[in-house]
Amino acid sequence: MNRHLPATALAAALSLAAAVPAAAQQAGIALPAALKSAGHIVVGIESTYPPMAYKDPKTSERIGFNVELVNAIAKELGVPVKWEEMSFEQLMTSLTTGRIDMIGTAISDLPSRRDKLTFVDYLATGAQPFALAAKAGELKGNVDLCGKTVGAPRTTSYMPVTVAWSEKNCAAAGKPAITVNGTAGATATRLDLKQGRLDAAVLGPEYVAYLMADEPNTYAFVGEPLNKTLFGLAFEKKNTELRDAVAKATAAVMKNGAYQQALKKFGLERQALPEPAIDAGQ
């Protein structure tokens, strides 16, 4: 960059720099000095999990609930987003080493992660049972899963959560246990269900909502999630100043209607939180 700017260009640059945090200042949100200096917020994201963050198959554009939420939060902060695409495995390391300011991917706020991270929680999630719509009359509530064959990806927490729920709510109540089949992933779970190898399946409610939108009248929720956890925007544990600024911006987005609009767009209304929370995941 040329260090010697014409006076008019320099004045314009200074004017722009002063305007960047204006929205945040008007909203009463104190921006960290580093964010003011950078003039943008660097957000790490992994775009392979619809409807939270994924690539539009027609345009390859990054879309999803988290994309819209983070952009709305950045608008409240008065800074643009600089996205850094990476694998899920790289996100936490990139955050703790300072490569990114925030994780914008759908990541669960778990106590085991809070030794290094701190979270602004914005959406409820969990292990959601669902079945083919044709079985909706037979499988209405969670207890109807007792004695059935239920699939869940073996590499996720959904499988052990389903086993534990069956032990507590089926076997302990004198009902036949759920036969839990481990699958090779979400796609395999969907295929096994459609081909009749499973009575029901368990995935994240947000992904089930995506499947229901992708194939209307094909799937139906069965009861409520077997456990309840929270998705959070993640920050390096010591970076509480940025976390608190984002929490205030998230509260503003929830208040001004942008949050509800994004929920409706991606079919996530049943997962809404009334307000953001800090490190509230269990």
Short description:
The protein has 282 residues and is α/β, with parallel strands linked by helices. It has helices at residues 7-19, 22-26, 33-38, 65-77, 88-96, 158-169, 186-194, 205-214, 240-256, 258-265, and strands spanning 41-45, 48-49, 53-55, 62-63, 81-85, 102-108, 117-126, 128-132, 149-153, 179-183, 200-203, 219-221, 228-236, 272-278.
Structure notes:
By secondary structure, this protein is α/β, with parallel strands linked by helices. The chain has 10 helices and 14 strands. A 6-stranded mixed β-sheet has the order 5-1-6-13-7-14, with helices on both faces. Helix 6 (158-169) links the parallel strand 9 and strand 10 (179-183). Helix 4 (65-77) crosses helix 9. It starts with 6 loop residues before the first helix and ends with a strand. The model is unreliable at 1-26 (pLDDT under 50).
Write the layout of secondary structure elements.
Elements: H1 7-19, H2 22-26, H3 33-38, E1 41-45, E2 48-49, E3 53-55, E4 62-63, H4 65-77, E5 81-85, H5 88-96, E6 102-108, E7 117-126, E8 128-132, E9 149-153, H6 158-169, E10 179-183, H7 186-194, E11 200-203, H8 205-214, E12 219-221, E13 228-236, H9 240-256, H10 258-265, E14 272-278
Parallel strand pairs: 1-5, 1-6, 9-10, 9-11
Antiparallel strand pairs: 2-3, 3-4, 6-13, 7-13, 7-14, 8-11, 8-12
Helix pairs in contact: 4-9, 4-10
